[in-house]
Amino acid sequence: MSRSIILGQYLPGESLIHRLNPRLKILTLVLILILLFTLETYSALAAFLAFALLLFALAKVPFRYLLRGLRPVLFIALFALVIYFFFTSGGIVLVRIGFITVESEGVIEGLFIVTRLAALVLFSLLVTLTTTPLSLTHGMGYFLKPLRYVGLPAEEVAMIMSVSLRFIPTLMEESQRLMRAQLARGADFETGSIFRKARSLVPLIVPLFVSAFRRADELALAMEARCYRIGAKRTRMHEDVILPRDWAVLAFVIMLLFVTYTFGF
Amino acid sequence: MVSRSAAIVEAKNVDYYYPGEGETVWPALSGINLTVAQGEYVALIGPNGSGKTTLLKLFNALLTPFGGEILVQGISTANEETLPAVRQACGMIFQNPDNQLVATTVEEDIAFGLENLALPPAEIRRRVEDVACLLGLRKLLRQPPHLLSGGEKQKVAIAGVLAMEPRCILMDEPTAMLDPAGRQDVIDTVRDLNKRQGIAVVHVTHFPEEAAWADRIVVLNEGQLIVQGSPEDVLTDLSLLHELKLQGPAAVELAALLREDGYRLPPQILHNRELVDSICSLERKN
Amino acid sequence: MFIGTEKLTHTYMPGTPFATEALQDVSFNLQQGEFALIIGPSGSGKSTLIQHLNGLLRPTSGRVLFEGIAVGSNKHELLRLRRRIGLVFQIPEEQFFSESVFDEIAFAPRNLGLDESEVEKRVNESLEKVGMQAEKFRNRHPFRLSAGQKRLVAIAAVLSLQPEVLIFDEPTVGLDAISRKNLYNLLTALNQKDGLTVIISTHHLDQAAALADSVLVLNQGRLVMAGPAENIFNKRKQLYELGLTLPPVTEIMHELAEKGLPVKTAVYTLQEARGEIKNMKRRYKP
């Protein structure tokens, strides 16, 4: 049962993309995302899309993961297409149904927007598929650090995120077990009105909270017993070293972006 | 009492109470005097609510006494600045294996205490590697804790404490939630650390067979230290144990019944083998 | 054939790289009124098996049979089944959610749609059955009872379904010696006095062994041994290899037998052992 819970979307692997420093991976992703938003030509966008697919191939991510990752944005994409097709005017009239017209400008812009959306999703997906949730957390924690000066306890926030990651599978397993236990006592979580259904969740939610608080209590003691102190200086087992190849990748991406941006094909 | 050179933990006239409902306080421990010597294995037994867990938490400075004092290697646990030194010297293993692992992988969890001590990363990696080798956890280093068995989780917890190079390990019923194989594995591991590395152990247990291997047994009841002594003396005193609603080891209980039936068995039978050998020699005489 | 399985196989997450075979080709049947144990190391599939018996999991292949009829997937059928086959999960008091002991125990009969006077009757009967006075406990807060009382209330909360079969997953985990003994007295009474079929999944044989009529042994999802308790518990070596240990008293009897003394090894309590050793003398002179 516990094995059925996969955290995040991480796909284990040993490719260069897997091994890149998570901080730089996040930074590079942000750069790419910003650029994607500013691109204006189809050719540049196509180049980016091709680049994304190339990276997927390098990371050895199976094609179906790519499709699965795009599925959640399908609805938004369709919605955007409809809006652009029917409500943007200009160019040649392609279709006319009654008073509704689809004009070429709308089609061109709509497709452009949707392709851009796909590219955004693909690049983000690449990062989440090739980085462990823990590394992602630490990477993001790093960028939170400057917020210390405005009073945000960055180190502690990173610790909270990583402890949450540790306990999500445990709590999911527990809620599954509780659900079965209450089913064995004749509980019914499916039938009835929304109000009835909401009420039927009480026998799940109350014990889940009780147990989560007990766990939190015990965990806090265990952390304290192992010398954890809020605000104290800590080191990390795996130093977050940025290797020459990380810089090389970043430099390469910046170059690529520069070229694409200036010449725009 | 076993007398060995230096004391690792000393409790001097310790009182502790939990705030009760309303104005009343519920005394959890009163007037406790106890010394744990270097390399000693102490089993702490007593009925539920007798104060065993409270005493362990006091040793680890998770609680500080209201009366008297606790010294860990001569350092008082009441001092905020020296807390890391106390907790590094006296590590703690809790009952529930699930709620004491902090990190998302085994290696990060073993490293947790060392990271808190702000050791250099290279040193942390070396110690994690050494401890994992010693306890046979190397294959599990990259695993997330929720995929481990209960026994493995407890061993990871022990590894996390061991990496901090403690002088004493405090264990609060570490095997209560494990299956027999996991239980044996954890007990063997701890006994081995005690024998080979001279790490003192304070082990709270309700399994009389586990307590029987200790150097010394300490019995608590209603917050008071009632008796302490060798397993041969304490665990064979069935009238005391039964009065506290505790059981003796099976060999002791059976020997007592057989003595009632007229078997002339030696007085200090503690382990199965002693009972079996005694019965055999009696039968051979017949 | 009262309750059992036919070539029951269960795969978690079939068709993914994470697929695990939790049960493989498990077939057995138990008679009405039996006291059965399902034993095996942790992760051997015990929990998966008992959840099948209650219709909480659907077989990947094979069937679960109750009174010779395959357990279906229809919701009403399942509800009927769960009314007749009660399942008490591990540490069942963790399911508590009510403000009073009464409401907690009333949850199941209310789910059956019984009218409030029948619910009331069932709550009172269930409490009395587990040895708690209804008047004294019905309005108590379930979270504020002692550990042993909580466990009894949790069992009463399943007894209020008035099941014919009662299945337990590790019934005594986390309890002290006294509560464990009380609980096994209760299980004996439910089995012998009320005629309930009792099935216990456990790896703590200490008390359970003495009560068992038949035993199923699981290892890595397969049924590796099954039969009358005496036959299974005599296979000490094989059980040991699976990480299962016999009760300490039984261990002593095995050790005596190994030394060549003519004792029966199927002995699980101190009093039985005492009688067996006393009888030994008579066996020398046939």
Q: What are the defining features of this structure?
A:
heterotrimer; A: 265 residues; mainly alpha; 2 domains; C: alpha/beta; Rossmann fold; six-stranded mixed beta sheet; 42% helix; globular
Radius of gyration of chain C (CA) equals 20 Å
The main β sheet of chain C shows up as: 6 strands, mixed
Contiguous helical run count of chain C: 12
Spatially, the strands of the biggest sheet of chain C line up as 6-7-8-3-9-10
Count of distinct strands of chain C: 10
Give the overall silhouette of chain C: globular
Spatial separation of the terminal alpha carbons of chain C? 41 Å
CATH topology of the largest domain in chain C: Rossmann fold
Strand count of chain A? 2
Mean pLDDT across the residues of chain A is: 85
**Measured on Cα atoms, how large is the radius of gyration of chain A?**
24 Å
Unreliable spans of chain A? 1-7
Side-by-side strand order of the widest sheet of chain A: 1-2
Would you kindly provide a written description of the structure presented here, covering whatever features stand out?
The complex is a heterotrimer of chains A (265), B (286) and C (286). By secondary structure, chain A is mostly helical. Chain A is built from 11 helices and 2 strands. Chain A has helices spanning 16-19, 22-38, 42-58, 63-70, 74-87, 104-130, 133-144, 154-184, 194-200, 202-225, 244-263, and strands at residues 93-97, 100-103. Chain A has a two-stranded antiparallel ribbon with strand order 1-2. The longest helix of chain A is centred in the middle third of the chain and has 31 residues, at 154-184. Chain A starts with 15 loop residues before the first helix and ends with a helix. The model of chain A is unreliable at 1-7 (pLDDT under 50). Chain B is an alpha/beta fold and 286 residues long. Chain B has a single domain (7-230), classed as P-loop containing nucleotide triphosphate hydrolases (Rossmann fold, 3-Layer(aba) Sandwich). In chain B, the strands form 2 sheets. In chain B, strands 6-7-8-3-9-10 form a 6-stranded mixed beta sheet, sandwiched between helices. In chain B, β4 (67-72) and β5 (75-76) form a beta hairpin. In chain B, α3 crosses α4 (121-135). Chain B starts with 6 loop residues before the first strand and ends with a helix. With 286 residues, chain C is α/β, with parallel strands linked by helices. Chain C folds into 2 domains: 3-235, P-loop containing nucleotide triphosphate hydrolases (Rossmann fold), CATH 3.40.50; 247-286, no CATH class. In chain C, α3 (101-111) crosses α4 (116-129), α3 packs parallel to α6 (147-159) and α4 packs across α6. Chain C is globular, with a radius of gyration of 20 Å. Classes of the chains: A mainly alpha (265), B alpha/beta (286), C alpha/beta (286). The interface between A and B is large, with 35 and 42 residues.
